[in-house]
Amino acid sequence: MRRAGFWAALASTVLLAISLSLVFSLLTPAWETNDEPQHVQYIEYVVRTGRIPALSVANGWESGQPPLYYFVAAQWQKLLGIPAFRPIPLPTAPATTNPVHLQMVHHYTAAERQQAVWVHELRLLSVLLAGVTVAACFLTLWLIFGRVSVATGGALFTALLPKVPVVFGAVTNDTLVDALGALAVVAVLMWLRAGSGGVKRRLLWSVALGLLLGCAALTKLTSLPVAILLFALLLLASARFHRGLWEPLSVLVVGAAVSGWWYLRNYLVYGDVLAARANERMVRHFFPGCLNISCYPLSDLHHWMVGVPKGIMQTFWYVGGWNQLTLNSKVSYALAVAAIVAVAAGEWVNRRRWREAGRSLERWSLGALGIVSLGGLGAAYSIALAATQYQGRYLFVGLGGITGLITAGTWGALRARLGRWQWVAPLIWPVLMAGLLGWVVAVYLIPLRGL
Question: What is the pTM of this model?
Answer without folding.
Answer: 0.94
